[in-house]
Write a structure and sequence with these properties.
The chain is mainly α and 99 residues long. The protein is built from four helices and no strands. It is extended. It starts with 10 loop residues before the first helix and ends with a helix.
Length: 99
């Protein structure tokens, strides 16, 4: 028999759980993030999650830029963009081949 429990959590904490990409390297932190993302979608907070993720990324980028330089960050972003485009193209081909 499965029991259900109600949890009350402030919106800001729910957004933090949903928007942080690396909260640890175990299943529990990832599971909490996925749960929080789902709850945010269910509650109509998806746009706030995206804003929080963008803010987090900007903070991380600024910190890393201070260490390795903005030129290096720009080069990494370009390479990641190329890889993301390639993955998207392969994904589209796989989906098209399944039709």
């Amino acid at each position: 028999m499965s029991q259900k429990f109600t949890v009350e959590i402030p919106e800001i904490l729910l957004l933090i759980l949903a928007s942080r990409g690396n909260m640890g390297d175990d299943e529990i932190p990832r599971m909490m993030q996925l749960w929080a993302e789902g709850e945010c979608k269910r509650l109509g907070l998806a746009e706030k999650v995206l804003q929080e993720k963008a803010r987090n990324y900007a903070e991380i980028k600024a910190r890393v830029s201070a260490i390795i330089g903005s030129d290096t960050i720009e080069e990494v972003e370009k390479r990641v963009s190329v890889i993301a485009s390639a993955i998207t193209a392969v994904d589209e081909r796989v989906k098209a081949s399944k039709k």
